[in-house]
Amino acid sequence: MKSMPRQGKPAHPFKPRAGLQLVFGGAFASMTVGAWAQAPSAPDPASGATPVAAASAPPNVELPNIVVVGTTPLVGVGTPLEKVPANVQTIKGGQIDAQHPPTITDYLQKNVGSVDINDAQGNPSQADILYRGFTASPLLGTPQGLSVFLDGVRVNEPFGDVVNWDLIPQAAIQTMQIIPGSNPTFGLNTLGGAIAVQTKNGRSNPGGNVDVGFGSFGRKYAQIEQGGVIGDHLDYYFTANITNDNGWADHNSSRLRQAFGKIRYTDSDTTISVSMGGADNTLNGSQTIPRSFMDNFRQAYTFPDMNENQLGYLTINAEHYFTPNVQLSGNLYYRHYRNKNVSSNVNDDFDPNGDDADELTQAFNDQSVIVTDSYGASMQLTLLNKLFGKDNQLIVGAAGDFANSHFTQASQAAEFTDSRATIGTGPFVPDTDAKTRNENWGIYFENTFSFTEQWSMTLAGRYNWAKATIGDESGVQPLLDGNHTFSRFNPAIGFNWNPTPWFTAYATYNEGMRSPTAIELACADPNAPCSLSNDFIADPDLKPVISKTFEIGARGRIGAHTQWSAAAYSTTLTDEIQFVSSQGAASTLGYFQNVGKTRRQGFELAGRTQWGALSVAASYSYVNATYRSTWTKSSASNSSADDDGNITVHSGDRIPGIPANTVELRLDYNVFPQWNVGTNMTYRSNIFARGDENNQDVNGSVAGYFLIDLDTTYNVTKQFQVYATVKNLLNKRYANFAILGENFFNGPNHTFNGADTVNEQFLGVGAPRGVWVGMRYAWK
Predict the structure, then answer these.
(1) The CA-based dihedral angle spanning residues 42, 668, 770, 342, taken in that order and rounded to the nearest 10 degrees
(2) Which family does it belong to (predicted)?
(3) CA-CA distance, 737 to 689, in Å (whole number)?
(4) 735 with 702: CB under 8 angstroms?
(5) Quick one: which of 202, 142, 11 has its CA closest to 690?
(6) Model-level pTM?
(7) Would you say 414 and 344 are in contact if contact means Cβ atoms under 8 Å apart?
(8) Which of 303, 317, 378, 385 would disulfide-bridge 251, Cβ 3.0–4.6 Å?
(9) Concatenated DSSP letters for 330-382?
C-alpha cells in the first residue's frame, strides 16, 4: 500500500531539508511583480477569508516552501525550483483577477519582468508580446520567437506560427508560467522563451461567480464561472464571457465571445481531464498613423481593417502513477481555427500619370481566409530514482503535431472617400488558393542529477523534425508547389548551487530552433515579392533559425518578507528571418530572407518586500538587441536610403521595436481588510522604427514613456465585491511601435493625394485614459 499526497501525487524524490514544506502542481516559482504584489489582497468574496502569502507567514516560519516548476510542455511531476537553472516567472489566475485587466497582454506588460507589448495593429486584443526582445504576435509574417502552450497543447497557429491572445480564455487561467531561454524540451519557436498556461479545475476552484462591468469607450462585459466536485472522483469547471467595446480610436472596436469547460476524473493513481473551448471574436484595427496625423491621434490611416477569429478545440489530458516513482502522462487534441481578414491598403504603384488601370487605382481591398485543422498527441514518462546512490529525475517524451491549412486571398480595386474609407470599384478577384500541410515530430529528454544536496546538474535535449508541404489549388500557380523539411537536435545543460535554503545560483546553456513557416518559404525570392498576407509563389528553401542562449542568475530570500532574483543572459540567433519590404517599410509588398546573426543580451532584477499592509514589488530589465551581421534592406522611406531605396544594416545596429530599459513597480495597500488599493507604474525607454534598421533615419527614435494605472477592490459582503480600474491615469500620449512609410494623404483634411506623397514615421499610438467599474457576486 503506497502513501499518496492529495490527488494521488507521490512525494518528490528530491528530499526537502528539515522544516521545508513541499508544494505540488500549480504552485510554481513566482518571481513576478504581479505575483508578489498581491500578498495584502482583500478577502475573497466567496469565503470572506483574506489570502495569506508567503511574506505574511508567522515569524516562527524560518524556511521557505519548495515550489515545483513544470519544465516541459506536459507538467507531469515537475522539478523543484531549487534545481531549475532558469529565472522562471509564474503568475496565478487570482493575481490576474485582482487587477481586472482588460486583456492578458495588458496584465503581462505591467507585471512580468522583461515583457513589453506594442500596438502595431491598433486593437488592444491584438497586441504583440515581446519577452527579452522575442515576439509572440497575432500578425502574420512577424518572426515568432516564443512558443505558447495551453494545457500542454502548442497554440502557435501552424500557418505562420502566430499567437492569437484573444483566443486564450483569460478567466480559466490557473497559472501562467514564463520560461526563459531556448529550452529545447518545448520544441519549435522556443528561441527566447516559452509561455505555458494551465487552466482551472473544479476541485481547486469550487463555487462560482458572475462578473459584470462597463466604462470608457463603450466597453461592456459579463462573465460567469462555476466549478465543483461530483462524488469522490469527478470535478467540473466552466466559464464564459462576452465583451463589446467601441474602441478608444476610430474604427478599432472589438466583439469577443469565449467559453471554456473541463470535466476531470481523479483517484489515487490517475487523473483524466477532458476540456473544450471556443471563441468567436471580431477585432477591428486602426493601424499606425503618420506623425502628421497626431493632431487627432484617434483617427485611422485607412479603413476597414478587420480580423474575425473563430476557434473550437478539444483536449484530453491524462496522467497515471504506476508506482510513486513512475508517472506516465499524455494528451490528445484537436483544434479548428478560422481567420478572415479584410484590409484596406494604398496601391503602392499608384501613378496619377500612369497609362494602365493598375497605376490609376488608388487602393485595394484585400480579403483573405485561413482555415486550419490541427491535431496531435504527446506522451511523457517521468522516472524518479537513484543513480549512483544520488537523487535523479529522468523525463523522456515524444510529441507529434499535424495541421492542414487552406489559404485563399482575393483583392478588389477601390477608391478612397474623404474620410479615407475604401469603396470597391470592381469585383473581388482571386489571387491565391493554396493548401499547406505541417508535420512536426519531436523526441525529448531531461535529466536532473543531484551530486549533493547543494549541487545538481540538468541535461536536456530534443530532436525536432518538421515538414511543410505547399500546394496550389487554383491550377494557375504551379510554382507554388513545394516540400520543405528541416531537422535538428537541440541540447541544453545547466547547473544549480544551493548552499542554503535561502539562496540559489545557476548557470545554463541551451539551444532552440524555428523552422520557416509556409508563408515564409513561399515568399522568399527578392525578384518575386509577394504581399502579406496575400499572394505568394514558391521559392528556394530558407534556412531554419537557430538560437543559442547562455544565462547565469541567482535568487533568494532575506528574512521572511523579502525575495529577490537576478539574471544575465545572451541569446544569439543564426540565420534570423526578416520580412524585407520591396517598396518601403510600410509596404506589404516584399519577401522573406535570412539576414545573418542577431543578438539579444541583457540582465533583469526583481525584488519584493512587505511592510504590514503595504506590499512593494519592482523589476528592472535591460536588453541590448542588435544585428550582428551586415546586410542590405530596401527601405525607401528611410532618409538615409541610397538612390535605389536601400539601406545598409551594420553589426551593432539596434533592432527596431525593442526598448532597452523597462521598469515595473507594483504597490498594494490594504486600507482595511475589506478594501485594497493598488497601482502599477511602468517605464519603457525609446525604440527605433521598423525600416530604420540602420538607426540613421532623420526622425530618430520614438521617445520612451511612463504610465500609471490604478485599481481598487472593496468587498461589501463575503459574497459581493465592487471594483474600479483606471488605465493611463495621467492621460499620457505615447507610442509603443513605429514604422517608416510613405504618406499618401496630404490633401486637405488628410485626403488622398497620391501625386504628393511624403515619407514619414508612422506610430502605433497607445490608449488614452480609461476608467471602468465592475461588480462580482460569488457563491459557494
Answers:
(1) -90
(2) Belongs to the TonB-dependent receptor family.
(3) 7
(4) yes
(5) 142
(6) 0.90
(7) yes
(8) 303
(9) EEEEEEEEEEEEEEEEE-TT--TT-SSHHHH--EEEEEEEEEEEEEEEEEEEE
The structural domains of the chain, ordered by start, are 6-779 (2.40.170.20)
Confidence of residue 589 (pLDDT cuts 50, 70, 90): low
Radius of gyration of the chain (CA): 26
What is residue 617's predicted lDDT score, i.e. its pLDDT? 96
Residue 524 has pLDDT above 80, yes or no: no
Q: Answer whether 619's CB lies under 8 Å from 568's CB.
A: no
- Mean pLDDT of the 265-275 span: 97
Write out the three cell numbers for 55: 511574506
Q: What's at 390, amino acid-wise?
A: K
Q: Report d(CA 521, CA 543) in Å as an integer.
A: 9
Residue 119's pLDDT is 87
d(C-alpha 737, C-alpha 84), whole Å = 35
Distance from C-alpha of 746 to C-alpha of 290, rounded to nearest angstrom: 11
Q: How confident is the model at residue 57, as a pLDDT? A: 35
Q: Provide the mean pLDDT of the chain.
A: 88
Note whether 474 and 197 are within 8 A (CB): no
* Residue 719, C-alpha cell as written in the block: 459574497
d(CA 39, CA 678) in angstroms, rounded, equals 11
Q: Distance between CA 436 and CA 374 in Å, rounded?
A: 12
The answer to whether the CB of 224 falls within 8 A of the CB of 240 is: yes
pLDDT digit string (tens) for 112-170?
A: 999 999 988 889 999 999 999 999 999 888 889 999 999 999 999 999 899 999 999 99
**Residue matched to cell numbers 466552466:** 238
C-alpha cell at 17: 531539508
Rounded distance between C-alpha atoms, residue 499 and residue 482, angstroms: 55
Q: What is the dihedral of CA 14, 20, 25, 29, to 10 degrees?
A: -100
- Is the pLDDT at 729 greater than 90? The verdict is yes
Contact 145, 135 (CB under 8 A): yes
SS3 content of the chain, % helix, strand, coil (to 5): 10, 55, 40
